[in-house]
Design goal:
There is one protein chain. It is built from nine helices and no strands. The protein is an all-alpha fold. It has one domain. Helix 1 runs antiparallel to helix 2 and helix 7 packs across helix 8.
Length: about 230
């Protein structure tokens, strides 16, 4: 998982170092294409590393809950996203409470993708959708609801079925929220969505529906940003 996170974010860090030495930064379209390629490569390399430990790719896919997609996965994905929106209300309430404690300034969310939406042309916008609605849902669900959730579930098995599920949901969801750049106050908001993804992963025994739900959520949020920033 750490290899995936590091590789997926490597282009941004390398470009910042490149710019720090006074070099010209490549255009936005190139940077977005590089991010898409890096995210795909990170997922492939992380899965390949599992095969180096003697596991077959089929075994790895089964372990993380990735199966052949069928039409019902879309239906369950919509159900999962709807459940996430309901839980989102709880997350927003917690965020408001934290904002009152730490200050209203902490409630201002900022995400690099907003700058991408503002500055990109048609090609860049297309690549932004690919990155946010295809690469991110597949990669993040593979590792957070797939590998991490499963390993936590097994590690805390001594706490019983309910206890291990609750701990796995809480830890994986908070970590998922923490890697996103919106700020600490927004961790409850993103974690509430992640809990819905975990519930569906546990219920269906697969990450297919969470991938669909994750993609729907990112598509809705990205489209709203496009309408507000480019409308």
């Amino acid at each position: 998982m750490f290899a995936y996170l590091g590789l997926a974010r490597a282009p941004r860090m390398l470009l910042e170092i490149w710019e720090g030495y006074g070099n010209n930064v490549p255009g936005l379209d190139f940077r977005l294409a590089l991010s898409v390629a890096a995210t795909i490569a990170a997922s492939a390399i992380a899965l390949w590393w599992g095969t180096r430990r003697g596991l077959s790719l089929r075994t790895i896919m089964a372990a993380v809950g990735l199966r052949r997609f069928v039409a019902m996965d879309i239906v369950w994905g919509v159900v999962c996203w709807s459940m996430g929106i309901a839980l989102l209300i709880v997350g927003v309430m917690l965020a408001v409470v934290l904002s009152n404690i730490f200050g209203d300034g902490q409630m201002r969310a900022n995400h690099p993708i907003q700058q991408m939406v503002e500055d990109s042309g048609a090609t860049g916008l297309f690549l932004t959708y690919i990155l946010a609605c295809v690469c991110a849902p597949i990669g993040e669900e593979l590792f957070f609801r797939g590998a991490l959730y499963r390993n936590l579930r097994q590690s805390f098995g001594r706490w019983g079925a309910v206890g291990s599920v609750v701990i796995a949901m809480a830890v994986s969801s908070v970590l998922f929220a923490a890697i996103h750049p919106q700020g600490l106050i927004f961790i409850p908001v993103l974690a509430s969505l992640a809990v819905a993804f975990c519930i569906m992963r546990e219920w269906r025994g697969t990450i297919n529906a969470p991938i669909v739900a994750h993609a729907i959520n990112n598509a809705v949020v990205l489209t709203l940003n496009v309408l507000m920033l480019r409308g």
